[in-house]
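As noted in the main text, all predictions were made from sequence alone. Below is one such record, for RagB/SusD family nutrient uptake outer membrane protein.
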Amino acid sequence: MKTLYKYIIGIGLASTLAGCSLEEHNPGGATADVVFSTENGINALVNSAYVNFASQFYGREDILMLTEGGTDLWINIANSGYGRQMTKYEELVATTGQMRNTWNRLYEIVNYCNAGLERIVDVSFTNEEEKNARVGELSFLRAYAYWHLVEQFGDIDLRTEETKTAVLTANRSPISAFYDLMLSDLDIAIANLPVTPIPATDQGRATKKAAYGLKARLAITRVAYESSASEKDKYYKMASEAAQYVINNQAELQVSLYDTPEEVFRPANNKNNKEAMFFITHSTINSLNPQPNNPNRLHIWFKAKYSAKAGMVVDLPYGADRNSKSGSMCFMPTRHLLELYDEETDRRYSDWFREAYYLNVNSYTWTADDLAAFEKPASMAGKTTLNRGDLALLFTKKKVTGEKRNLPYALVDIDDTYNGDRVTTNARFNVHFPALMKHDDPDLPEANSQAGSKDVIVMRLAEMYLIAAEAETLMSGGNKTLAKDLVNVLRERAAVPGKESDMLITESDLDIDFLLEERGRELCGEHIRWFDLKRTGKLYSYVQAYNKDITTMRPYHVNRPIPQQFLDVITNPQEFGQNDGY
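Prediction:
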């Protein structure tokens, strides 16, 4: 697979709104006006607009903390550092470095797109279809970057022209203006983007299906900012139509559902995933990645502690194991997330979560220390032996009754991991939990390496079924029969064989809480939960109800703080103002 990132250049485009300059390679000292007047220059500029999504966001823990952390589904058991600020809202302030980095990198993407959209009109291309594709990509990427900015930071500065010098004043624009621009950009993207990338070897470029998908996502988000029923219905309808276009034209758009949930995130399907609508590429050739040492390290953040216990050692199939103590940062499921699944009927749980670990050394005899770690009888020391392939560890969502400590393997059940609705303070058990496998990467160069190379799927076809179903459920006069049928497509796929009828829902099941539960079951860990809860007005209430380990969240945390660095640079910081609560 060809990578986009080897084409990156930089011509001193003024950075973000903070006044620092970009520092990529400037070929031969040429000026932006000269370089960007050519087809190669524009292509390089478009490629540069993709880079931050791979080097700074998707594949990194920062964006994961902003999009999945701080919700009802995940708890970070870290007790220090920026992980606590971003996932627990503890001491989240305007000087938090990750806020500044997120702001700067997203505005850099916007500025690349603004520059490209201004300049490409006057540039001749050998292939007019390629020129149209670049217009579509720039429009898509600007909308995608602005969606992140406006949802994270609120009514900030809307810029539609290239920033060529340091910006000294800034003004807030209404959120509606952002959405007007983004949805207009997506109409342009839909009109110009091809079904397959140009060239076809450049996997990871935005294509027509991605534009339709983002339009559906943004339209249903805009509902939250409308007050009248008619305006809400307008955007529900827009979301449903865009999502249904993808659903009804799968062959034309070259996208389709897998037959089983397991196939969606099967590592062998990652580089040519038929359900993905937009994904961020990471090359298997490390030198081609913007971050060659650790391009995609999502695979390390959802891991339970399994090594150095019951004879287990770190290996490639089970993945990296960084969570050596209760203070280590990780994303462990809340009890609420685990209990969203009925594993007897819904195979998404067993397909996407790991409970069992089988001995990966030749043999192991229980030691006194390991017995104590799992509160097993000391009398088993030196007696009970496990052989390669035997069950060694079981971290289960089930509640196990009876003599669970006397089993030949170590068992940690849901009541060991959690004390009611909170993670247990017992350090013996609070690092052992069912681990999400969606981001597993068995192709690491070595066990415990951070250098993952898997692409990050940030939009897939299943989401279109859920968006259309939500819009039809909540829109005045919407088609709830259609909504039910759309949800049932996913639930039937997710059924344990023979349990299909048990998974089907009726129209009476459909309301926003059920739909959010279903989105949690289907999309957990996929960089969307924070956005979902915010747009439905459920972020604060759901965290209060379902993630009681987050104790310092306040209603104003639906927006992040404006970075202090930005306020220090502009001449009108009082007029621009800090977001409420900060």
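The first helix runs from residue 32 to 35. The chain has a mean pLDDT of 91. These features were considered when defining construct boundaries for the mutagenesis experiments described in Section 2.9.
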